[in-house]
Automatic annotation (TrEMBL):
A Gene Ontology BP annotation from the UniProt entry: regulation of DNA-templated transcription
The keyword Phosphoprotein is annotated on this UniProt entry: yes
Taxonomic source organism: Mycolicibacterium chubuense
Keywords: Phosphoprotein
InterPro entries the UniProt entry points to: Cell_Proc_Reg/RNA_Proc, FHA_dom, Sig_transdc_resp-reg_C-effctor, SMAD_FHA_dom_sf, WH-like_DNA-bd_sf
Gene Ontology molecular function, alphabetical: DNA binding
Gene this chain is encoded by: garA_1
UniProt xrefs under Gene3D superfamilies: 2.60.200.20, Winged helix-like DNA-binding domain superfamily/Winged helix DNA-binding domain
Record protein name field: Glycogen accumulation regulator GarA
Domain of life of the organism encoding this protein: Bacteria
Statement: the UniProt record of this protein carries the keyword Phosphoprotein: yes
Range of residues in the leader sequence: none
FHA domain sequence ranges: 23-73
Length: 205
């Protein structure tokens, strides 16, 4: 089993393999993952630990905190494929690659491999995705996907209707039930091209 991080920087996207027993993350150049461009990141901000069958993340007493799927870390947490990590203004996504019994790779979680296209969506499901993901292109240093209430207000539908559309989207994108499913859905929708950053920016104008 191997894993990597998808690191989003001002210059674009970088894929960083996770190897060894621990991987340090911070602003200082000596870190394994150095985010020197981000002044809101501490010199040693967080550490990824190799647990053998999985990886975990731990905040190292950083000034602005480490967020996992929108939740501030208060203890070490085991990572799952597709988890979003935010440190300062920087965004990273953890991906796990599982080796199959035949020796091949399960590409469903490999961002570097050809990405599976999005599922077929209804017009309303697409509208829900756009509203869900739009906050990710805001100037907020810690953006989170839109809440159910905010989506209902913008789409002029009930919260129950939004929840039903979200459930359909969770099923179509195979979003696991644990953790913040809205964060994972937003990441998966962007990864698979169901919505693009350009479309989200255009929808705000």
């Amino acid at each position: 089993m191997s894993s990597h991080l998808e690191v989003f920087t001002p210059s674009g996207r970088e894929l960083v393999p996770l190897a060894g027993q621990r991987v340090t993350l911070g602003k200082a150049s000596g870190n394994d993952i150095a985010l020197e461009h981000d002044a809101t990141v501490s010199r040693l901000h967080a550490v990824f630990e190799n647990l053998g069958a999985a990886w975990s993340i731990r905040d190292m007493g950083s000034r602005n905190g480490t967020y996992l799927n929108g939740e501030k870390l208060t203890a070490e947490r085991v990572l799952h494929s597709g988890d979003e990590v935010r440190v300062g203004k920087s965004r990273l996504i953890f991906w796990m690659v599982r080796e199959s019994a035949a020796g091949g790779r399960d590409e469903a979680t490999v961002s570097a491999a050809p990405v599976e296209g999005p599922p077929r969506l209804t017009r309303r499901e697409y509208d829900v995705l756009v509203v869900l993901c739009r906050p990710l292109v805001s100037d907020d240093p810690f953006p989170e996907p839109a809440s159910v209430r905010a989506m209902a207000g913008e789409l002029y539908v009930t919260e129950a209707a939004v929840k039903q559309h979200l459930q359909n989207l969770y099923d179509k994108f195979a979003i696991p039930s644990e953790g913040d499913r809205r964060v994972r859905l937003a990441n998966e929708a962007l990864r698979r091209g169901a919505v693009t950053l350009a479309q989200l920016r255009d929808s705000t104008t």
